[in-house]
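To whoever is on call:

I kicked off a structure prediction for a single chain this morning and the downstream step that reads the tokens threw a length-mismatch warning. I double-checked the sequence; it's 265 residues and nothing unusual in it as far as I can see. Pasting both halves so you can look.
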Amino acid sequence: MDRRRRIAPQRGQRPPGPRVDLDDVIYGIHAVNEALVAGEPLRRIHVGDERKSDPALRNLLERARSAEVQVRFENRTFFGNFPYKAHQSVVAYGAPFDYITLEEAIALPRPGPALFVLLDHVTDPHNVGAIIRTTEAAGGTALILPERRSAGVNATVRKAAAGATAHLPIARVANISQAIRTLKKAGIWVAGAALGEGTVPLNEVDFARDLAIVIGAEGEGIAPLVGRECDYRVSIPMAGKTQSLNASVAAAILLYEAVRQRRSA
């Protein structure tokens, strides 16, 4: 069964057109503008009537016109029925997200050592979006998601990523453990964020080499089978009483340790 949410007309209303897959929605000024900058194929953009002359939208509207993307100005009722509230009266409908394969990710050109991020069943779309944003900002090569039990690139992820989904290659794989084995065969070392015995302190890991960082599910961490595939299980120093960090925070710390070491090198 298709569990993706769709916009349906209210009882007594005329349908505005075909039902729309909300996985294909991009909302918010920055996210829509970044999609235009990156040349993502957008079907149309809806803008609130009250923002027709808003200077904050001038560049966005000019880019839409240059890209020949249809812009429709809507009243408050349209946005009142929209399921996501942080839309800023700017909503775009695009094509389904264009995932790449793992093999394509490994073959991507890169100016320096590879830096991949793998998410082991991270289901919170806000965390996935934040990790995509940080990975792109840190110069990551690509991000890799499992096909099941994980947030895909949907409207919430795109919003949280603040436009980074338009710039960072993202692959989906059937099995994270198998993906790790494929990466290792390609000469890429793998470090998984972990807690407890058998972990290596953050400052003792070589992040300057070709590397893939694995971030585990909220609360559970990386799965035991995935952990056994990693070359390192890396721990982040914890000085307080809190036992663990949010997945996106842990990813940011590991990614910027990689940035620090690579710049030092």
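Update from on-call: the warning came from a stale cache, not from the record. Cleared it. Sanity check on the structure: The chain has two domains: 12-94, 102-264.
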